[in-house]
Amino acid sequence: MPAKLYNLLVVDDQAGVRRLICEALLDEGYLVDQAASGKEALEKIKRKEFDLILLDIKMPNMNGLETLDEIKKIDKSATVVMMTAYGELEIMEAAGRKGAGGHICKPFDLDDLRRLVRDHLPQDDLDKALLK
């Protein structure tokens, strides 16, 4: 259970994938919101601050890279981790140049996802002291 209540946003056009990720993260004690599209994600990001955004790359209408560009216009410091089933190196490199903090390839092990989330969340002072 995290020491702080972290707000996470899961963005994926596939309802089953969103549900699986959200359940795994809710079980860890995170506050989790979800969006089915880039447009919906942007609306939520304008209204609420998230500690971490998990963003699918392949989505209709507005793909993950386009959504990432718009997220960074709203909040340059947003922590975004890209999700993809395609593992294309060029796309991952482009996402990194645009400000993504990392990526995970689908299908993924839920323990790997939990670790990735923990590694990308901001650490409070107490957590930093314990890690030293």
Automatic annotation (TrEMBL):
SUPFAM superfamilies: CheY-like. The modification 4-aspartylphosphate is found at D56. InterPro entries: Bact_response_regulator, CheY-like_superfamily, Sig_transdc_resp-reg_receiver. It holds the Pfam family Response_reg. GO terms for biological process: phosphorelay signal transduction system. Keywords: Phosphoprotein. May play the central regulatory role in sporulation. It may be an element of the effector pathway responsible for the activation of sporulation genes in response to nutritional stress. Spo0A may act in concert with spo0H (a sigma factor) to control the expression of some genes that are critical to the sporulation process. This is Stage 0 sporulation protein A homolog.
